[in-house]
Write the structure tokens for this entry.
Amino acid sequence: SPPLYTMLLAAASWIGMSLETAAKLVGILCYAASAGLVALIAGRLAGPVGAALAPLFLVASADYRLQALSGLEAGFAAVLGLIAIALMLEGLEGWSGIALGLALLDKLDAGMLAVAVVVAFLLIMRKVPWRTIGCAAAVLAPWLVFSLVYFGSVLPYSMTQKVGGTVASPDAPWDRSWIVDMLRTDGSTLVAVLALASLAAVPVLARSSRHRAVALAACVAWPLAHAVVFSVIDLGDQYPWYRTVLYPPMAIAAATILALVVQATSGAARPVTIALVVATAVAAVGLTSDRFGGIGQAIRKVAHGHTVDDYEAFEATRRDAGVYLGTVAREHDVIETCFGWIAYGALDNPIKETCPLSTRDPVAPPRWSVDTSFPGIVEPTVPPGAEVARTFVSTAGAGGQTTVIRLARRAR
């Protein structure tokens, strides 16, 4: 589903870099770049106060930090979207379209960004942004043609399976408020409210620069459209990486409205306004609770390193299982698992999976099975006639484990 990000990692692998190292490096660079880009855009929209507040709001989000540095394409998607908005802000409509096309090539989720940019441009400029649309289409079209010929569809298989309910859990009814709930849990509710309020500043910016107004409107419409779509459509689970792109544009919009309020006041009212804006910003970044909230968490992780939590340690057992299977399974062995939990670890062996997200076509009976469990709570399921080949146990408190099961002995 993320072809551009996949090609980026493939290029890194081609020059000899470890895929995991490449994913970590891209995540780190994109996390840093997104902080710089939100400062740049907010500064161009509302001056130095906006440039100072926007990265603070972004870094304060623990959810954004976790997902952007997770090794997935989430941070890369956010950066491409921010570049498209930054270029539109400067009036570079064609270049903005190229960046938008790259964002769509990275993830079709960027369709919400495309709609936001086009609608904002249409309402403010009173014309269709044909140059932007044409450049975006020119970038994306070759991939769509290839995807249609090679895969038989322009839509990612994972998307059609999720939307079709193939991977949905009947025991987990869809919660349409999950994104709102996560914003509340992350402490980003006030930033989201300020971002919505910044729509009031769009007409003000339009008087001096309509491209600036388009950029601000896109920073509000993009996360709003994204949140609505991913709240309404049931994708089978509340996948956290779908929230990632919400935070950077919200940080820009929230910082912009506060900075413009400061700019709009003068005289005796200015000190009072500054005090109110500072108090609002402090509340927005969570400096009043939980040992200075998200900002404090970010500082502690930079200063002291990241302590592996229970879930990460459990995830590591699945990776280790994949590495092990890469040494013992033969080419084209079928592994009974799901969601690629272990396949990426098998760096030297192309493993086929039984997961409906992994294959369109029927596969042979599985030779191996991978089961995750928690000793004393949920034990691994070993079918009759099968045997446990290897067990990888988490060293963390939760004690999760991944068990590799040999389902059939290979005929000699």
